[in-house]
Write a structure and sequence with these properties.
The complex is a heterodimer of chains A (220) and B (708).
Chain A (H helix, E strand, L loop, with lengths): L1 H16 L3 E9 L7 E10 L8 E9 L2 E2 L4 E3 L2 E3 L6 E4 L6 E7 L3 E9 L1 H4 L9 E8 L19 E5 L5 E5 L4 E3 L3 E3 L5 H21 L3 H7 L1
Antiparallel strand pairs in A: 1-9, 1-13, 1-14, 2-8, 2-10, 3-7, 3-9, 4-8, 5-8, 6-7, 10-11, 11-12
Helix pairs in contact in A: 1-3
Chain B lengths: L1 H15 L4 H4 L31 H14 L1 H6 L30 H11 L12 H23 L4 H20 L7 H10 L8 E2 L1 H6 L6 E2 L14 E4 L2 H4 L2 E4 L13 E4 L4 E4 L17 E5 L4 E5 L22 E4 L9 E3 L4 E9 L9 E7 L5 E8 L2 E3 L2 E3 L6 H4 L1 E7 L7 E9 L4 E10 L4 E2 L12 E11 L7 E4 L1 E5 L5 E2 L3 E6 L4 E4 L10 E9 L5 E10 L5 E7 L3 E5 L5 E10 L13 E4 L4 E2 L5 E5 L3 E3 L4 E10 L9 E6 L6 E2 L4 E3 L2 E7 L8 E9 L9 E6 L3
Helix pairs in contact in B: 1-3, 1-5, 1-7, 5-6, 5-8, 6-7
Classes of the chains: A alpha+beta (220), B alpha+beta (708).
């Protein structure tokens, strides 16, 4: 009984140490530039020092605007094209998705951050990673739109900090970013199976072999 | 000439006094003078030199001889005046002014003129005894001076005795000293002996040199070409009983009648008739040397070996003995293929001559002639180098030849070989001709040996001469060429290869490259470079000034183009370079630094006291830069004094810090904070990188405390 208790504590502790993914819900009021033939840019890059791996998804992209199609993709970006989910890994220096876009009245998408840098920070890395979202009022992506950061043109940036947290800097008053929604990571099938087997190895035999003396005796 | 005559006399006297001839008789060249009443049209020495000059030691030696028999006369002759050795009132040998048609006023000058112009002196009706007449006249004229002095009665008897002694002595020296071609006076004597009548102007030089007898005059060469108009003939003035004849000196035996009617067939060793019509009956006369038989079928004289009694024994032709001369010339190797040399740098030349191993006789006389160009080289700088032949090495004085005039020496080969080799080197500064003459002398006569098998340079041996001369200042690229000519005995002159150098008179230029300011480390790199028109840069000397002090050489004559200078924190440094090219031209001196820097006093904060972290780098399409932050935290227990700087080291190629505060030691840096950091406190600075290649951006941050 004492063994089964310890294993249960171990499994529960393991689950508790894994931090949750971080999800931000972006909602941009683009009504002021509706009809503008512009462009959108998303990039997610590591820092210049030792950087732990991290992944970012662009989910649930929706707008009454029109994507131009034929995005320009650089680096470690998979999935897509929008509105299909995009996945950015920070394994290379420049991971970027750029696509022409005719703005409508609004634009929504979710950003999900996960991976070791988010879910299990190692405590020794010295650089985080940063996500940048930009809107431009030209197709070439040179004229920032809906942002106060006219120098760099960023609408919003999200820094993945060394402790697994994230810091949002929003330069766009037209952009609202919902509080982060954390999602408990689902154990993978193998992890689940391993856990089950471990539990079975320690718990099931004792249940199986323990004689229900009282019941049996009472039955006798 | 009396100058030269008298010199000879006193050189003899000096010899008696154990004074070395070669040291005391350093005779000077004598200017030629034209003569109107001459027969040979030879230019001769000046007629106004008087007697002498002689070395005082020679005059003293003569007085010593006189003192042995007449001490009073020797005492009277104490003035040591070569023109008036008796030191009397009327005993000057310049007093005589006889029938000399020139302006010469003394017996000695009269004698000079007689020698050099073949002037028909009194009683000289036979040119074949010309030299003897000149000498006889000299004696008579000198004695006449003394006789006149005695008649005038103004000089005491010891003076008259001394006058007569010196008159005899001068004549003795002139009349009894063998003609030595190596002495400067020997040339005058030779000229005198060469005088011949107008009907037979060709002197018999060899006979003249061989003895003191007056020369025989022989015939000129015939006016026409040699018998077969080839280079196989040499005119021998001594042949044919002194009448002269064309002598076959070609590699094959001479033709039968010394005519051009015969063609040599080397495959048969035969002279084949090639004249018009039929050959002479039975071939006519056979070739003059060797053994031959007439082959009527082929119309040719066929050579045979000679056996006893000169009869033919085999078909081999006889061999004419002769020396052979391959030669070579080398000079300064110089720099590069143009063989650059520095303007004003002495150029050394060596001329080699070999008697080829297949030669059939040793070389008796070798003359090496080098034509120098006065517009290109400075004649006054010609100095002799070593002279050699076989195993003999002579080292002439290093004094410029223009100073000593002529260099002459004898090399005694006895007892190994009964020869004395006379070597004379002379430079004619007017013509630029520098000549070395080796002559094999018979020690018994001190005249050229008459043994055809004797000579100083046997087959298969080598000789050489060398000299140096300084080119005149010239522009870079000016060619300096030199070629010598070597003559072996009677062989035709052979030119050596031409040795060419190119002048490089251009100084190199160099510069120390600009240095970052300030330098982070006391040990920093300094780079320099240079160029040169011509030979190219050989090396550099780098000078440094510390804290504006005087410049001192840091690296001397280094071929490197960069070095690590080790200075001190807080010091300033200035550098300049001086280049030297491959021929020794040195860059114009400098007084100002070409590159300056100073070494910072800021110190590196160790990683145990500071932690550096960075954000991710967001890419801006507007600025086309990767933007983020760098944060520095004091993790130590003590305050870190400001200002603080982050130096970005080890940035990848192509990545630059776009918002750098500045650069130091070739590295960019950002000022993090002007304030100090207390323990636990952090400071953050924005960073902006340009990364057109989208390569991974990384760097090693180094944190400095203290201002740059």
């Amino acid at each position: 009984m004492r063994q089964s208790f310890l294993v249960s504590i171990m499994v529960l502790s393991s689950i508790a140490a894994a931090r949750a993914d971080i999800i931000y819900q972006f909602n941009v009021n683009t009504g002021s530039i509706s009809g503008t033939v512009g462009s959108l840019d998303f990039n997610f890059n590591p820092g210049p020092l030792v950087t732990q791996a991290a992944t970012l998804d662009i989910l649930d992209f929706g707008s009454d605007g029109t994507l131009a199609g034929g995005p320009s993709i650089t680096g470690d970006v998979s999935g897509g094209p929008l509105p299909t989910t995009l996945t950015f890994d920070n394994g290379s220096a420049f991971n970027d998705y750029f696509e022409g876009f005719t703005f409508g009245s609004s634009l929504t998408f979710n950003v999900r951050l996960y991976g070791p840098a988010v879910n299990s920070p190692d405590g020794i890395s010295t650089s985080g990673s940063t996500f940048a979202f930009s809107m431009f009022s030209d197709a070439a992506g040179t004229v920032p739109a809906l942002t106060s950061d006219l120098t760099d043109g960023f609408a919003t940036t999200i820094d993945v900090n060394l402790d697994g947290t994230a810091t949002v800097t929003n330069f766009s008053s037209q952009t609202s970013i919902g509080s982060p929604v954390t999602a408990v990571p689902e154990p993978s099938s193998l992890s689940l199976l391993g856990t089950a087997l471990t539990l079975g190895a320690f718990l099931l035999p004792k249940h199986c072999c323990r004689r229900p003396k009282d019941k049996v005796l009472s039955d006798i | 000439m009396l100058a030269s005559t008298c010199r000879t006399l006193f050189c003899l006297a000096a010899t008696f006094a154990s004074v070395a001839w070669s040291q005391q008789c350093s005779c000077q060249p004598i200017s030629p003078v034209s003569a109107s009443a001459n027969q040979c049209s030879q230019s001769g020495p000046s007629t106004t030199n008087g007697c002498g000059p002689f070395p005082v030691s020679a005059l003293n030696a003569a007085r010593a001889i006189l003192a042995a028999t007449n001490p009073a006369a020797a005492a009277a002759a104490s003035c040591l005046n070569e023109n008036n050795p008796a030191c009397g009132i009327n005993t000057s040998f310049s007093n005589y002014n006889g029938s000399n048609p020139t302006t010469a006023t003394g017996a000695c000058d009269h004698h000079d003129y007689c020698y050099s112009t073949c002037w028909a002196a009194s009683g000289d009706f036979d040119f074949n005894s010309h030299k003897s007449v000149c000498d006889f006249d000299l004696h008579a004229e000198l004695l006449r001076v003394c006789a006149v002095a005695e008649i005038l009665g103004q000089d005491p008897q010891p003076v008259i005795d001394a006058c007569n002694f010196f008159a005899d002595a001068y004549y003795f020296g002139v009349a009894n000293i063998p003609i030595v071609s190596s002495s400067i006076y020997g040339g005058d004597q030779t000229q005198a002996c060469m005088c011949c009548s107008s009907s037979s102007p060709q002197p018999n030089i060899s006979r003249n040199n061989a003895s003191f007898a007056t020369p025989a005059c022989i015939s000129n060469p015939p006016s026409g070409p040699p018998p077969d108009n080839s280079g196989n003939w040499t005119w021998d003035p001594t042949a044919n009983g002194g009448q002269g004849a064309w002598v076959w000196t070609g590699p094959i035996p001479p033709p039968p009648d010394n005519s051009g009617n015969w063609t040599w067939d080397p495959s048969r060793g035969a002279w084949v008739w090639n004249g018009s019509g039929n050959p002479p009956s039975n071939g006519g006369n056979p070739p003059p040397t060797g053994c031959w038989h007439w082959d009527a079928a082929s119309g040719s004289w066929v050579s045979d070996p000679c056996g006893g009694g000169g009869q033919p024994v085999s078909p081999n032709p006889i061999q004419i003995i002769t020396s052979g001369d391959p030669n070579d010339k080398v000079g300064n190797k110089g720099a590069g293929s143009p063989q650059y040399v520095r303007s004003g740098q002495a150029t050394n030349y060596s001329i080699y001559f070999d008697n080829i191993p297949t030669a059939t006789a040793p070389a008796q006389k070798v003359m090496v002639t080098d034509q120098l160009t006065s517009s290109v080289v400075d004649m006054s700088t010609v100095s002799l180098g070593k002279i050699s032949f076989v195993n003999n090495l002579i080292t002439p004085p290093s004094t410029p030849l223009a100073t000593i005039g002529t260099y002459s020496t004898n090399v005694d080969l006895r007892p190994a070989q009964n020869l004395i080799v006379n070597i004379v080197v002379a430079l004619n500064q007017n013509t630029g001709i520098l000549t070395w003459t080796y002559t094999s002398l018979d020690p018994s006569t001190m005249q050229p040996t008459t043994d055809p098998l004797a000579g100083f340079l046997p087959p298969g041996t080598e000789g050489s001469v060398s000299f140096s001369v300084t080119p005149k200042p010239a522009a870079t690229g000016t060619q300096v060429t030199n070629q010598a000519t070597v003559v072996f005995d009677v062989n035709p002159p052979i030119n050596t290869p031409i040795w060419a150098n190119t002048i490089d008179s251009t100084r190199p230029v160099s510069k120390v490259s600009a240095l970052p300011t300030p330098e982070l480390s006391p040990s920093f790199s300094v780079q320099w470079s240079g160029t040169d028109v011509g030979a190219g840069v050989q090396d550099y000397t780098i000078y440094v000034s510390d804290n504006a002090g005087s410049f001192t050489a840091w690296l001397t004559n280094t071929t490197a183009t960069q070095g690590n200078y080790i200075g001190s924190a807080g010091h300033s440094y200035g550098f300049y370079s001086i280049a030297r090219d491959l021929v020794g031209n040195i860059e114009t001196s400098k007084t100002m630094a070409e590159a300056t820097t100073n070494v910072t006093t800021a110190v590196i904060i160790p990683s145990t006291q500071v932690a550096t972290t960075a954000s991710g780098l967001a890419y801006s399409r507007v600025t086309q830069t990767f933007n983020g932050t760098v944060t520095v935290k004091n993790i130590g227990t003590t305050m870190i004094a400001g200002p603080l700087e982050v130096v970005f080291t080890a940035l990848p190629s192509g990545v630059t810090l776009a918002n750098a505060t500045g650069s130091i030691g070739g590295l960019t840096y950002l000022t993090l904070s002007s304030a100090s950091l207390v323990p636990g406190q952090s400071a953050t600075v924005n960073v902006q990188f340009q990364n057109p290649g989208n390569v991974q951006i990384n760097f090693t941050p180094v944190i400095y405390s203290g201002g740059f």
